[in-house]
Specification:
The structure is a homohexamer of 172-residue chains. By secondary structure, chain A is α/β, with parallel strands linked by helices. Chain A starts with a strand and ends with a helix. Chains A and B meet through helix 2, strand 3 and helix 3 of A and helix 2, strand 3 and helix 3 of B. Chains A, B, C, D, E, F: It comes from Sulfuracidifex metallicus DSM 6482 = JCM 9184. Chains A, B, C, D, E, F: Its EC number is 2.7.7.1. Chains A, B, C, D, E, F: It is found in: Cytoplasm.
Chain lengths: 172, 172, 172, 172, 172, 172
């Protein structure tokens, strides 16, 4: 049994994330999708709750007929201690041996903790990019084709794009 | 889509838990299994990490040919504020409408937060009981038949019963 | 302007607390009532939220025609560092110079922080005692005369005594 | 009994805040003034402790002959979980039904938690503005007429404007 | 350069601790003395602050002419996550390779984190025992000969034994 | 016995810090070196763990033949409550009476807590400056002469400058 882990904040989960997930799932028996900053929501960089993000991920996987039984989605709150973060993660999830991540700091922290890491391909990051999608939500741009149909429907159903605009409008 | 939630500490996950899970899954489309006290491990009442408990649950479900795609297993750390606990939970998990729980305080807290609750049947609680199983582990009693085969094998593979004995032997 | 501070958990606020409060108010211009363990509720020793306890205190003061404008009620969450507790308190409340408390440790901690302290008289502690009142609530005993009328009515209106019984019944 | 809640950081409490408070008090029987970010002080955006802010509010109310017995001032520390914030607040304060706030995010968070909200008029926000007042304190500008007399005297007595300048001068 | 670590709460530091320390120092070039539960004080099991405990240790070492330059005393607050504790410790202290500890759980946690461990001899634990010394302080027993002269003088100078009696007398 | 305290983050410890330390040690019997933000590491402003910083300080002191027995190095995690910070510090360290610090806010916070403070000379701050050294590490500039030989060797041995570059390269 070979397990990999794929960390992200998924604000929101988009088609680029889906490509990484499919690519990673090909390399392992089971893939842990780690939903980071799980305690955050209703902010500019983290508008959606962990639960909402999990619904997006599951909906997208079902829509794409990916075997849910091989995917383990785990939300994890931040701890503000980078040097123990990889160990903190390993407490919350089934045992794993491979990290899939592009972020050099994340790669280093897991390497220091003894994990092997594989850097996934970029999958058109200029187009599929959470920061860009959040901007498009705020400016009434076209973000529909950057996420799965189910994610688009879900975000609309919880008025997630309106939430983002309200956060922008807040003077705090 | 009807979702239910089934909270527990699952130290360890035993056959009584499995019965509640199967019974609950019959009543909803998807069932969230909430792994509480997720930050704890290596204590007398919480010997196993959240990740280890998730492995027990998944192994038991696979062994019993239960459709994993309908089960959402979520670890959640304690917050020490009972009056916001149900709201805290709802931040970490997909939206749900029904709680399955026997504990009167848990039932009350979720009722106060607006959820409907169903009390599951007892399923032989005297026999299938985590406290009892932990005691049997410590005293070299027979706990093998109280958990699934895969859970037994898993606990043995991580020397979980030895860990419990070491905790008992600690003078702190 | 002379201010005093009177700390307690007030689970619930009873007629003995009222006597201390009136006695203390006689000695100062304004009295701070510090509602401790403010983050706790729904437990055996802390069944009521801070907000509920504040309602009890205000209701009792109005019922007894005590000048509310001289009373400052402040909830404060626990910090688990005794040696900085008095300084933590002084951050949350208007400046004060006198502590009213019987608990020797509380007295010492505030003395070490440079405050003067006065020990209030006992006011029939065997009868007016929060632990006892909580026990009477659980056993359907007679606790009505140990709290003010408004507090009794308030606790009944939020079914506070039933909440306590549910906590007792919980197997966690 | 109709209660409203008016949240703010009040760094410092100024005459615009006073107008909102008087306007809100007209609409309810009792008004909760929620002093947010209560754990913070000695920073550029939060120079004053919660206790100091409470003194400003009380002093201003007395100076303006507003009935203190209808005002409930409650300090509340931040929690970094927006989605449970309204529920966290409701734990610390007497029960309320109406929120008075202009900030769109605050409005949304309380609406999602089931409260009704009323947006207060702006009351000359360009003039009465805490950020501006803090800037005037730092630059030795004229901020005296933007706060009540008692608040001005209080801030001077604790050398609050000097504290702000020292914070600006800090190289951390 | 070989470094060892010796964890304890040292409430108070006694002559048995001194023996372990001397024994351990013989086995390594430098010895880290880890003062645990550093955030606690003024309780029955943790009466002394971390700073006070550090003064006891330094005083005892000087009195016994042990080379202070080979001893690194580090206070560390608790985290309530046993499975990351060893990693948490390693963030706060210079790198080390050997643990000196008798507590089976501590030994296991550090072993799981990849450290080697040596169990020190018992050095008359029935006599030199912090729990016993605290009891003797409370009952006016003879504890003078169980700690170093400088520790005895220090505890007397801060009235540490009186503090313990006040904690016992507290009704919280 | 006169003790002073010298707080800093020491990211990294450089020759300017060393000058302050020597200057301070001349004024007291023992000097506490307080390593702040001890929980942080692997960030742009706090790349090194507390343990790594302690190794730099000890190495530099040994290299400069300063008597280690007069220096007490204590790591301390941040608390986000400025008004209790000085009291928090005093809990973790042996008693002291003099603060050595240049930062006006730190000076004020300790003065408010009753300590006397001495402002050390600047010792060529334009040259010896942690922010500058971190920038030089990132840009492959010459920082070797700004730290002690042992600190340079130590940082190289843990690949600390590479860690900083990876942090810069991170897209989070």
């Amino acid at each position: 049994m070979l397990r990999g882990i794929y960390p992200g904040r998924f604000q929101p989960f988009h088609l680029g994330h889906l490509e990484v997930l499919k690519w990673g799932l090909n390399k392992v028996d089971e893939l842990i999708v780690l939903v980071g900053s799980a305690q955050e929501s209703h902010t500019l960089t983290n508008p959606f709750t962990a639960g909402e993000r999990i619904e997006m991920i599951r909906g997208t996987l079902i829509e794409n007929e990916i075997d849910l039984s091989k995917i383990i989605i785990i939300p994890i709150p931040d701890i503000l201690m980078n040097s123990v973060w990889a160990h903190h993660v390993s407490m919350y999830v089934p045992s794993f041996s491979i990290l899939f991540a592009r972020n050099p700091l994340v790669v280093r922290i897991f390497k220091e903790a003894g994990y092997s890491t594989i850097i996934p391909p970029a999958f058109n990051r200029e187009k599929y990019n959470s920061t860009l999608i959040r901007k498009l939500m705020i400016t009434n741009g076209n973000w529909k084709d950057l996420v799965s149909e189910s994610t688009y429907t879900f975000i609309k159903s919880i008025k997630g794009d309106e939430r983002l605009k309200e956060i922008v409008g807040s003077d705090k």
